[in-house]
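[step 3/7] inverse_fold.run input=structure_tokens len=448
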């Protein structure tokens, strides 16, 4: 049966009527209806092309032919319950193992980053026989109830902080307590975690895990200071806990120089790594990697872990194809080259526009922190929203904001993002900010 084609306004009306209104749209006042995509481009119902700087899920590019062919070929053969033996799961686990430190050698396949983080929490609690978790301020780890509980970004708007959850300062060297002029911000922020552990122990409680994104994204595209993770791991291990690295946003070569963002911290190795979004290039595929010791404790509890679709033949065929494309098209190299060029262009822009307070990032994980006052580093929230709106309306470029005040323009595009794409985006941002200055537009003072 042919699928009925709806007019955009009808689709919008039906969505408002049928879909829960907490499921938000990009550009909610004038959403974009996308009918097809390829590479780093989206196309609406009229064939208009948009440059996608948002979709870090579509890691190797929208609808990559090698990935879609692998999916279709496996679908024609078999897709079944994961209790049957099949080559794809073990071959894919073996490929993932080759990208990770040797001690991370046991894999659990699931369907989403939220599932992966929920399972990581279970693994940590079973292994340590403790419950309390330390997380970073402004963190977001997923939409399940267990993860809302350890996501300050969410729980502060809901029921509040649980007694077993403890929040450490975000190691932000731009806005945080210890900034870029501090001689060793990594040590200083890690010591804050140690203070928190001592406080928890003083209450007669015990630490299960330190849970953190390797590069905090919702927190504002934060780059952790060097030495931070290793020192935190030392303190957490001494307290009987484990270190969980959430790579759902940042894994699979997005940082360019390394396959995993936690590797930016030198020889540091977490005890559990969670991965998701980019794994399946838009197909629901996620994973938890851990040590044999932690996996053994999970098995020893006598309760079977079963996931009907996690690691099914089609998902793993897609995962293998994604790994092939990353390697064959040198997407890590591309992330390094394009990301460096983008940061250089943005630094030049920063020199001309006072509203750009900070440019930070690594590879194709980049943030522009907008401020109304460079000295006070006051977030320019409304201006950031205006830039996002103008980029979409005037230039067909899709960008979004993040950070505690939604004042950071974030870039996590598909990994095929090009040098020309980077130049176009910066030219358009320059034009928008120049027009604002020329028209003396002061959004933070309600000009609009």
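[step 3/7] decode complete -> sequence:
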């Amino acid at each position: 049966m042919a699928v009925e084609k709806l007019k955009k306004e009808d689709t919008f009306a039906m969505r408002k009527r049928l879909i829960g209104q907490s499921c938000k749209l990009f550009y909610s006042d004038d959403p974009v209806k996308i009918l097809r995509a390829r590479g780093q481009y989206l196309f609406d119902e009229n064939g208009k092309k948009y440059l996608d700087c948002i979709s870090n899920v579509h890691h190797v590019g929208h609808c990559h032919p090698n990935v879609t062919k692998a999916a279709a070929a496996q679908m024609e053969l078999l897709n079944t319950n994961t209790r049957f033996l099949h080559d794809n799961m073990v071959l894919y686990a073996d490929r993932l193992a080759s990208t990770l430190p040797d001690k991370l050698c046991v894999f659990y396949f699931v369907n989403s980053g939220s599932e992966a983080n929920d399972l990581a929490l279970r693994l940590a609690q079973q292994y340590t026989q403790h419950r309390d978790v330390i997380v970073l301020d402004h963190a977001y780890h997923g939409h399940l109830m267990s993860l809302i509980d350890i996501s300050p970004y969410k729980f502060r708007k809901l029921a509040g902080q649980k007694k077993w959850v403890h929040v450490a300062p975000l190691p932000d060297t731009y806005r945080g307590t210890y900034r870029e002029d501090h001689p060793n911000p990594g040590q200083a922020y890690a010591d804050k975690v140690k203070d928190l552990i001592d406080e928890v122990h003083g209450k007669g409680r015990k630490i299960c895990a330190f849970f953190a994104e390797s590069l905090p994204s919702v927190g504002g595209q934060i780059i952790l200071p060097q030495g931070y993770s290793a020192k935190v791991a030392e303190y957490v291990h001494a307290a009987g806990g484990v270190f969980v690295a959430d790579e759902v946003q940042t894994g699979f070569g997005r940082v360019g120089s390394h396959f995993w963002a936690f590797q930016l911290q030198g020889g540091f190795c977490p005890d559990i790594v969670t991965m998701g979004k980019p794994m399946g290039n838009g197909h629901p595929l996620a994973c938890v990697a851990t040590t044999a010791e932690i996996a053994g404790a999970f098995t020893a509890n006598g309760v079977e872990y079963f996931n009907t679709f996690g690691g099914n033949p089609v998902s793993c065929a897609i995962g293998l194809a994604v790994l092939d494309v990353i390697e064959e098209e040198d997407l890590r190299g591309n992330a390094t080259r394009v990301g460096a060029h983008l940061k250089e262009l943005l630094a030049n822009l920063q020199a001309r526009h006072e509203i750009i307070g900070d440019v930070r990032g690594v590879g194709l994980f980049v943030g522009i922190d907008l401020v109304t006052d460079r000295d006070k580093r006051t977030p320019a929230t409304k201006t950031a929203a205006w830039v996002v709106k103008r980029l979409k309306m005037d230039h067909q470029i899709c960008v979004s904001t993040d950070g505690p005040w939604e004042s950071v323009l974030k870039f996590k595009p598909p990994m095929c993002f090009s040098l020309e794409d980077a130049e176009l985006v910066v030219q358009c941002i320059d034009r928008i900010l120049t027009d604002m200055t020329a028209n003396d537009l002061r959004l933070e003072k309600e000009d609009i």
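[step 4/7] annotate
The two ends are 48 Å apart (CA to CA).
The first strand starts at residue 34 and ends at 38.
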